[in-house]
Write a structure and sequence with these properties.
- This protein is mainly alpha-helical.
- The strands form two sheets. Strands 1, 2, 3, 4 and 5 form a five-stranded mixed β-sheet that branches. Strands 6, 7, 8, 9 and 10 form a five-stranded mixed β-sheet that branches.
- The longest helix has about 35 residues, at about 10-45.
- The protein starts with 7 loop residues before the first helix and ends in a 5-residue tail after the last helix.
- The relative contact order is 0.04.
């Protein structure tokens, strides 16, 4: 289409009118800005005029002089700017060409007042955004006057960034995107799209020159269209369909993040609304793109990396703990959750943050602290930019500049030092909050779900349950309904958590059991202030809890008995073993406060149950290896035995009519750990193997001392092994001299005499694991003396005689033949079967009996430590040692896994690799590194066969 040229005189008149209009637009805008600054000056009593550099726009200085008058009435608002500019251009009585848009007009009197009040600062930014919007509208009117063919295009200006979010600074670029559609030509017919886009590009360019080109008044704002599709390389103006095609096919993650703030600010209102309505669906489905959350997180890291190191600690906007941390956090939460909740879609950061908190997507406390920090950072940014009206985001370094800035923020008394400390504290808090929320595992997990999965729609949910491995989809749906029904905040949080948790349960061994356990736990803890908040906000608690509940009936029951233990799952330190010293201090506090012996014993057993749960969770989550887990379980048993001994002595003194003073006891007691307890290799269902020894005090009645010692040993076993509200710790003394036929307790002298005269080789072998574990107060030396007594028997000088070696082998063969439970397939018995725990331990113990007198490293109660020493001494070939170690570790892991999976600590099947396919699969998932159930079965049987070959060769000397 050819547009006829206007006569020269007409063009000159139009140019003159355009220049006048451009000057008027800028002058009126500067007057409004100056009035805002001046009004703040009048209200605060701070001479901000002195902060403005010489040569500042005359409008700013003039604004200060009219501030007092402005305080008494209304100064021109955004709409008035549009009207005045348009009428100046077109004539006072001319009909306006600027479309009227429904918008709340912020009066500059209000904006000036809030300038000095940080809490109300967002109103200043909103007023400035309105001002920018009005200036754009008026500038577009000027551009239209310059181009009579403007009717051939419908042009809408979309505010982006701070303009779109109503968060504009005093000195900001005004980010925009232009969208155009063909208009009508002089003949009343629609023009073709290429021509319309060309006309739109001329209008957009003219608009930008009106706001920032050379003129009698300084530039008002730089209008920046770099956020358009393809950035500065793309066309300045696109049609709506072109925008949509780009966003649908080519847009990157950050571009959808930018579109969150898109808002029509000038031009054709209907086209602006159509643009917003068309891009919204693309924005809210963008989260389903592959790696969307990870890309957003990577984008934030790149922004930080591009901050020059010299500016990193001064950067208010882009640095760590700056404005971008808050904005990226809010925007990511909006993009992840906004597809299902329109209420959180505000383009304004603070309003969006409040909506996110109200809907439960971020904690109220988190949101409140983040909002306070954000307001302070924005106020700081505004004050820094007001000085000389410079576009900067850097905190000044000069003392005088910092003092001036502190005064402007109301920190007159604190001064430069107080401002600096406030800045640093705010950065630290923002960064902490940002990292807690921005990197939640829930966010990428939620993003990967479909809308049906997020909505928990019943039919879609049932299909999902069946697809991901739930055996009872209808039952799972009932649990979900029970947890999410209602309008309470608790139900809202569950609706946020469950879509992700359901998938995490499915990754565990038994999704149905995991969901049921979660429902029970939630019904117990759901009303607490911390439980659901912890699962939502923690970086690991929700995923860890899902894995634990869906993998272990034992731990699900333990957490139900002690729900506060869920908090361990949020912090790796919470799963670390407490260690014997710390547990001893806790047991001491329990016993110091206790009055009733039975109640004290229950509390000690509760302490052990808690530590078993901690250790089990740590092992399941692979924070502890099998050796470390066994040591932690043994430490808990040690502490209970030590505390139990104190309680038993108290009971014995009462029964025998002795004063309740440890010094009144007629003998000093010693409890010696034996077996797996002595080796610090206990499992979750292990008994505590012990021997009891005592030594009468000087001058005590021997008969009374024996009665006291027997009473103590008996009561200790009763208190710790009794059925009650806490799991028992069976105390087994069968490894004492003469076994069950011998006396329960002996004096130390009696032990010495027995081992000297009558002990058998199996008793020497049992002593390899003897470890003093508990003594009466003040009798520590008793344990050392027992160790000195035992060492010559378990580490015989010159090694084990040949006859004793044959006897050890004979006893082992008899155990293999007689002790396996009936009906159990030997190859599947984890303890007594070929290549199992017992095979490895007997082999290592024989090496200790033969060589420990010459190899100090073998003088240990631990199986793996002794095996390592044997390998280092050349007593076992490295490959043989590897096969034995692998078999012992795998069998020990499986014994623990069977207990954790089934929840049963006793019974014939506790030490058996199950045949049941579901149980095998569950145990395999619990272990996590052995493939499926069939793989686990094959791996164990192969590992045990290799270990048995070593046992035959090393232990039985079969070749």
């Amino acid at each position: 289409m050819t547009v006829p040229r206007r006569p020269a005189a007409s063009r000159d008149a139009s140019r003159d009118a355009s220049r006048v209009a451009r000057v008027v637009v800028r002058r009126l805008a500067w007057l409004m800005l100056g009035a805002a600054i001046g009004l703040a000056t009048a209200l605060l009593g701070v001479s901000l005029v002195r902060s403005v550099a010489p040569g500042a726009p005359v409008g700013v200085v003039a604004g200060v002089t009219v501030a007092a008058a402005a305080a008494l009435g209304l100064v021109p608002g955004a709409r008035e700017l549009e009207v005045t500019a348009a009428r100046t251009m077109l004539g006072t009585d001319a009909e306006l060409v600027v479309p009227r848009r429904p918008r709340a007009t912020h009066r500059v009197r209000t904006a000036g007042w809030v300038l000095g009040h940080q809490a109300a600062g967002p109103a200043v930014a909103a007023a400035l955004a309105d001002l920018a919007s009005a200036a754009l509208e008026a500038a577009l009117a000027v551009a239209r006057a310059q181009h009579p063919d403007h009717a051939q295009v419908r042009l809408a200006v979309i505010g982006m960034g701070k303009t779109g979010g109503c968060e504009l600074n005093y000195v900001s670029d005004v980010d925009v995107v232009y969208v155009a559609e063909p208009g009508v030509g002089p003949d009343g017919q629609p023009v073709d799209e290429p021509h319309a886009m060309a006309v739109g590009a001329r209008l957009a360019s003219a608009l930008q020159k009106v706001c920032a080109g050379a003129s009698a008044e300084p530039a008002l704002w730089q209008v920046d269209a770099a956020l358009r599709p393809e950035g500065k390389q793309g066309p300045l103006v696109r049609s709506l369909s072109s925008h949509l095609a780009y966003y649908d096919r080519w847009a990157e993650t950050w571009e959808f993040q930018a579109l969150l703030k898109a808002r029509p600010v000038a031009g054709d209102p209907e086209l602006g609304r159509a643009y917003r309505e068309a891009v919204d669906p693309l924005v809210w489905k963008a989260v389903s793109r592959e790696n969307f959350v990870e890309d957003a997180q990577a984008m934030r890291r790149r922004v930080e990396e591009h901050v020059p190191p010299a500016e990193a600690d001064r950067q208010i906007k882009l640095g760590r703990g700056g404005l971008r941390d808050v904005e990226f956090t809010v925007q990511l939460l909006q993009l992840v959750h906004g597809r299902m909740d329109p209420g959180i879609r505000s383009p304004n950061t603070l309003r969006a943050l409040a909506a996110l908190a109200s809907a439960g997507f971020v904690g109220r406390d988190h949101a409140g602290r983040m909002a306070v920090c954000y307001r302070f950072l924005r106020a700081l940014e505004h004050r820094v930019q007001l000085y000389r009206l410079r576009r900067t985001h850097l905190l000044p370094t000069g003392e005088e500049d910092l003092r001036r800035l502190a005064r402007s923020l109301g920190l007159r008394a604190e001064g430069a030092e107080g401002l600096t400390e406030r800045w640093r504290a705010t950065r630290r808090e923002v960064r902490s909050l940002h990292e807690e929320v921005f990197y939640r595992p829930l966010l990428p997990a939620t993003a990967q779900l479909s809308e049906d999965e997020v909505s928990l729609a019943p039919e879609a949910a049932r299909h999902r349950f069946a697809a991901i491995g739930y055996r009872d989809p209808d039952g799972a749906m009932r649990h979900v309904t029970a947890l999410t029904e209602g309008t309470s905040r608790r139900a809202a949080l569950q609706r946020q958590l469950l879509p992700v948790l359901l998938g995490w349960f499915a990754e565990g061994a038994d999704p149905d059991a995991g969901l049921l356990a979660f429902r029970r736990l939630s019904e117990e803890l759901g009303s607490t202030h911390w439980y659901l908040k912890l699962l939502r906000d923690s970086g690991s608690a929700a995923q860890n809890l899902a894995q634990v509940l869906a993998s272990s009936r034992y731990l699900a029951d333990a957490l139900a008995r002690s729900p506060e233990s869920v908090q361990w799952l949020a912090d790796p330190a919470g799963l670390e073993p407490r260690g014997a010293e710390r547990l001893d201090a806790e047991a001491d506090a329990i016993l110091t406060r206790a009055d009733d012996p039975a109640a004290a014993a229950v509390l000690l057993r509760a302490l052990r149950r808690r530590e078993l749960a901690r250790t089990g969770a740590a092992e399941l989550l692979r924070r502890l290896d099998p050796v470390g887990a066994a040591a932690a379980v043994s430490d808990a048993a040690d502490v209970v035995l030590h505390g139990g001994l104190r309680v038993a002595e108290h009971v014995a003194r009462a029964e025998l009519g002795l004063p309740q003073d440890p010094a009144a006891s007629p003998t000093r007691m010693l409890v010696v750990a034996m077996g797996r307890l002595g080796g610090r290799e206990m499992g979750y269902g292990s008994d505590a193997d012990v021997m009891f020894a005592h030594e009468p005090v000087a001058g005590a009645d021997g008969q009374l001392a024996h009665r006291f010692a027997l009473t103590v040993a008996t009561r200790l076993r009763e208190l710790l092994g009794a059925v009650g509200p806490e799991p028992s710790l069976p105390v087994d003394a069968d490894l004492r001299p003469e076994g069950r036929q011998g006396p329960l307790v002996r004096t130390l002298a009696s032990y010495a005499e027995y081992y000297e005269r009558w002990s058998s080789v199996w008793e020497a072998q049992a002593l390899l694991r003897a470890r003093p574990v508990a003594t009466s107060p003040g009798a520590d030396a008793l344990g050392e003396r027992f160790t000195a007594l035992a060492d010559p028997r378990r580490y015989p000088a010159g090694g084990l005689p040949a006859g004793d070696v044959r006897e050890v082998r004979r006893i082992k063969a008899r155990v293999e033949a007689e002790r396996l439970p009936r009906g159990v397939e030997p190859a599947r018995h984890l303890k007594l079967g070929p290549g199992g725990v017992s095979d490895v331990e007997w082999t290592v113990q024989l090496l200790q009996l033969q060589h420990a007198h010459a190899v100090p490293g073998l003088r240990t109660t631990g199986t793996v430590a002794a095996l390592d020493a044997a390998e280092a001494a050349g007593l076992v070939a490295p490959l043989d040692a590897l096969h034995l170690r692998e078999a012992w570790v795998l069998a020990s892991r499986l014994r623990s896994a069977v207990v954790l999976w089934s929840g049963r600590t006793t019974g014939a099947q506790a030490d058996v690799l199950p045949h049941d396919r579901q149980a095998l699969a569950g145990i395999a998932r619990l272990l996590g590194d052995v493939g499926g159930g069939a793989d686990l079965e094959e791996t164990y049987l192969r590992t045990a066969r290799r270990a048995r070959a070593v046992v035959d060769r090393v232990f039985y000397d079969a070749g």
